[in-house]
Specification:
Blueprint: H1 2-101
Length: 102
């Protein structure tokens, strides 16, 4: 009877060790999974960061080019309006004075 009890106790200890080994393997697997997730996230982030940087640079160049063109258009319009004003200011003043006096 003692031998049977000793066998049962030994089997119980072995099963407890197997359970602990399984828990250890589970924790290691979870750690590995978390590390793999982090590595995947980091690699994807770096990959997309490069793409985003290229897009950002392209858009900045487009905005800069567009801004330069708009500034040139503004200057041309300004010069045109100043020229028109200088050419017609005397006539407009005379016209306003004549309308006010009539």
């Amino acid at each position: 009877m003692d031998a049977i009890i000793q066998d049962l106790v030994q089997i119980d200890h072995e099963c407890a060790e197997r359970v602990e080994e399984a828990k250890t393997k589970k924790f290691k697997a979870n750690d590995n999974l978390q590390q793999m997730r982090k590595d995947l996230y980091d690699s994807c982030w770096i990959k997309h960061e490069v793409k985003l940087q290229k897009i950002r640079e392209r858009l900045e160049n487009e905005v800069s080019s567009s801004a330069g063109q708009k500034a040139a258009d503004y200057e041309n319009q300004k010069i045109s309006l100043e020229k028109k004003f200088n050419e017609n200011k005397d006539a407009w003043v005379n016209d306003l004075v004549s309308r006010c006096l009539s």
